[in-house]
Amino acid sequence: MxxxxxxxxxxxxxxxxxxxxxxxxxxxxxxxEVIKVEEPGLGDKARTRGSFxxxxxxxxxxxxxxxxxxxxxxxxxxxxxxxxxxxxxxxVKWADIxxxxxxxxxxxxxxxxxxxxxxxNPKLIMTSITPxxxxxxxxxxxxxxxxxxxxxxxxxxxxxxxxxxxxxPLKGGGFAGDYFSGLYAALATLGALYAQGETGLGQHxxxxxxxxxxxxxxxxxxxxxxxxxxPRRTARSGDTSGMGGIMRCxxxxxxxxLVEDHQWRSFCQLLGHPEWWENxxxxxxxxxxxxxxxxxxxxxxxxxxxxxxxxxxxxxAVGCPVVPFLSPDEVVNDRQLKARGFFVExxxxxxxxxxxxxxxxxxxxxPWSVKRPAPLLGQHNDEVYCQLLGYTKEDLVRxxxxxxx
Amino acid sequence: xxxxxxxxxxIADFTFQWAGPYASTLLAYMGAEAIHVESSRRxxxxxxxSITTHRRYTGLxxxxxxxxxxxxxxxxxxDLTKPKAVKLAKRIVEVCDVVAQNMRxxxxxxxxxxxxxxxxVKPDIIYLSSSARGAHGPECAYVGYAPGFxxxxxxxxxxxxxxxxxxxxxxxxxxxxxxTSAFAILAALNHKQRTGEGQHIxxxxxxxxxxxIGEVLMDYDMNRRVQSRxxxxxxxxxxxxxxxxxxxxxxVSIVVSSDEEWEAFCEAIGKPEWTKEDRFCDAHSRKQxxxxxxxxxxxxxxxxxxxxxxxxxxxxxxxxxPSFNSEELYRDPHLKERGLFTEIDCPAGGxxxxxxxxxxxxxxxxxxxxxxxxxxxxxxxxFGELLGMSNKEIKSLIDEQVIY
Lengths: 405, 404
Fold this sequence. Notes:
heterodimer, A: alpha/beta, Rossmann fold, formyl-coa transferase, domain 3, 2 domains, 3-stranded antiparallel β-sheet, elongated, B: alpha/beta, 6-stranded parallel β-sheet, 17 helices
């Protein structure tokens, strides 16, 4: 049997939607053992989000939920009851790591904050993922993906170049920002796990979604305190940097990033204009300026007479970083991803077989893998409550009737 | 002094630009010792120029961008085209746990510093190779930078205004790829801690972006639907947009996610009658009449500052957060209390303000330990102290332009 990188790490997950579940998925897919707690009835909100096969909503068939919850066991538990909280604490004793995403005041009111839980399990790592962190005046504020993307300042500079400066700043597509912050929380959790392995010590990890995204735009974010300038969206027509950027071709767009001299030289030769390279006025990657403006129509003509695939392969053949914008169908059918086995088919008892993205890293010794699809709501109640915590079948019936599981 | 969670871990970093170097910087925030290997033959380009502002820096020690992206690391110089330098690199690897590199495929192998070669000198080494498209497959030699990762990954296609081209994304994509690398390295370190085994990691930066839109890719597989750009909007929720506020280029993001929040929202902005109107009374109607709803909300927000909107709506339990610019992030009282920024020395002189790590650890501190290395600043420490070479030996290698 293949080895798993995080074999033996036990994680209790109490999160929903994207950031928390993605954080834990990253760890589960590398071999951590995960028990995910959902509220009885509706469960994780991602179950209601879709997309659904045939566009027919079904709590067990949401692509978002299926993708973000691979390799997890699922149980239902109502922590708003005293008995529910007692059971939650038993699960905390089992776990090496708890990942939760509730507002700080909610965990405190439930008596499930870090100070309360570490008494039960001194080596516990508790990763708390919230919009604004555990401290500060906004600690209990609400924020969705859109709010975080803008509240981090990344929205304000998106798109970097626009045709109309009066238009609103934008978020990244889909839930990109939430995935980013889930990745940051997973990185922190692994850091704490490593320290636990060295010292046996647990700790509280306070992971702010807002700060995670600010970290990604760290150079722009620090522009004001250092240089008293505010980066903002700029007019597309004002760019004469000459690195390339977005260009239209016959059937779509490509992006060119010609930063090195040899790339610019190859590009000029490929387009049949070696004299552009000879032109001293255009030697500076970042300031090809007016001379570049003059040759732009010729570049554009070359691009427009080719498909983006043709542009891509011709440019890459001479070492030029020119790359097509791929739509989701093109990503799914991409030959490079196929050769790397990037998509894996996962069979789920209700949703059936669907191709899922795997992971962007291939480990030589501890491969990424899907051992089990996302759990049905409460699928592992019997297994966890009876086998792990020692409740009887009769107890389960009573807990179910009381609305606790 | 308390120790960072990765105290004792040592990394030999053969990467350059942004997506490569920032991975070991993140691990250095956690206390790892990261040694950045550079060369006069090809100094890291961010020492010379800012790819975002296009500002140029004289010399190799003036760039605040390099300083930020490499804060807390050590810097040495080796001309790896010389066999003696390769030998020294191997001796460094012998005292490291991790090697990271983002050269074009086969370059490290050609230098004699590929995974197989380094495993011979350090059997339990963790070796990360990152590239635009991964280390094998028909396009493994293809080159790309951050905008290309987002373009190939599919994220750009779904980012932007519906009636405009996809968005060219840059810095955040580099650093997202770097964060993915750091995560993969740390997973391998946890495995090594438990089993003593190292391994090779082949990371594709464009795949690191594709995994962020998993549900969109699955929608195509399930329904043959090709999702596209939709600005700030959501498939289900409305209002869900960025609205213009009082001031120059000031905006606030507002999301209403339930009927309960909708009622609170209408009450808070003084339009309780909206909850009774057919066009807005439930989530479905609000989504159907979103254009009109956005227009009406914009009429209210324009007479408020974005901070006023946040205060009013958050008090009512509705998610509203300004679209902050750099100055606002710097002055924001919450972020001040969170310690968003850290002051480090600037190699050009004076101080530089950089973004702090996004987490707080209660026991093992995670912090920016210091500024980025000057060019070759730690040659003496690494060759002298770590490898135990004499000053005479070091000097002659400098004269031979091996340490260069």
